[in-house]
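Hi! If you just cloned this repository, the fastest way to understand the data is to look at a raw example. We've pasted two of them here, unedited. The first protein comes first, obviously.
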Amino acid sequence: MNYGGVGDDIPVYVISVAAELSGLHPQTLRQYDRLGLVRPGRTSGRGRRYSMRDIRLLREVQRLSQEEGINLAGIKRILELQQEVEELRETVFHLHNELEAARSAVARRGGAPRPKGGELIPVRRTRVTIFNPAAHPGRPQDGQGDQGE
């Protein structure tokens, strides 16, 4: 839904218009902002400006609250998890594209003689350090120690 050619992410609606479009009271919109459920844009005078995406989110919060009986803390967690899933999907999409590009590059080099045992693929080295105090030698693990021995 796009009104007057305005993009879904452009914060243009004042709180009274956003309240009318979402079917909520302006005070409810303020509460949702305070709780971090919806984060409208701000003007230089700190007035709230809502986008169409914000209004759809307000409707979803209201639906989850009234139709599903989920409390606001639960709704906030659901929204956070939905955002995380979206970010992970985007990451998987990019990784898939990189994998396909690497496969294509390997296929283009297919005419070169292969070393015995398979093909060599360049790998960038990285260093990972894991700090786990329980894994250090000489330290008691899982309650084992010098007690009573």
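Ok, and the second one:
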Amino acid sequence: MASTKRPSREGQTPLARHGVLKSRHPFMTLFAMFGVALAVFGVSAAGIAAYNLFDATQTITANAVVLDEEKPLPPSLGAIEGGVNILMVGTDSCEGANAALSGACQAKATEGERNDVTMLVHISDEPRRVTVVSFPRDMLVPIPSCPKEDGSGNYSAMSSQMLNASYQYGGLACTVLTIESLIEDEIDFAAAIRWTGVINMSDAIGGVDVCVAGDISDSHTGLELTAGTHTLQGVQALQFLRIRHGIGDGSDLGRISNQQQFMSSMVRKLQSDSVLANPATLLNLATTAISQVQQEQLVLSSGLTNPTLMVQIAMAVKDVPYEDIVFVQYPTRYALGDGASRVMPVKDAAKVLFDALKANQPLTLTGDASQGYGVEVTGEAVKPEVAPTPGATEAAAETPAAETPAAEAPVTETPAAETRVELPSDIAGQTAAQTTCTVPEGR
């Protein structure tokens, strides 16, 4: 993680400005409802295919969310020492077409816009690794004093609120401040997406395969699935990512692991030829991302206005091995006397995780795949095959082994084995190398 701490923002002038953000940002497909890495793995090709859309970035800077006015933006990913942190937020807006996607919106049971899903994507220094940390929306955390969107001052700090209230009190910048306070480290970039943006982005990628261990029928989201494997996109993909009552123990913790199954499957699809080798799909991802920004379904921090940086981020992580793409849940325990919904942070276990990220050490999971019994591990994913260079096989066959003197063979040093950090069993999660299956509620 970034090693240079910036000063507290409390008491400073307002940091956030919200508005229509016009950008091609194929990187933001990374968030396509928590597909965290959607364009992180496909943007390099998409960026090249859609670079004629660069002019769309010219109007983004003035309306972007500013996370820190005093700190200059890094010119490239390589200039960020200690890795990079990107916060991805999914909100439950009841505006426009989003209202029809939620019974709570139609019943007018909710007010404001909240961060229904909050995830931190950490991209390490070399050797590159990607760790995605999901924060339960019902986790009770302090919310710092956050600037009001209209610049009229600050909201008061709160000692204990559910995490999903942070977006309501100051938008994306407030959620960033809240997570920074929790993890005691800075966040370099951030983005938020609404439900209709999720639907359109999942359509653009052509769907994601998910596994269900039994029939699911959920009246809250409207999702109906039979046992087996399904390719989900559009509204059905959103329903799958939002479902919690129909899976595991019916909690948000089970829902997180369900989202991680979706993300893991998406990563494998993105690294496959069906996406990376398909210019039409990549261009569609890029242009769809533009439309979501223009329709105010996607909000970006000012650091994500640089298309060159987006491509650099994609190039940095596109070849990360499955086993080094890790999805974990921030460790929690249920709050005493608060039923079965509110949870409290387990900071000792979390410290092991974030210390390992700062030291760029590989992680080993020791806990369950889900704290809420939402998924079960069914096996290891098939690693992507590397196609041989055309003509290489024939050339090798035509060259007798004796013609290559042993002395000319390149001498390579075996790198020292890295020390893997075993995460506490309190930390649930999976890697992209694992395949999981959603467990219906009550099974």
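That's it. A detail worth noticing about the second one: Confidence is low (pLDDT under 50) at residues 1-56, 385-407.
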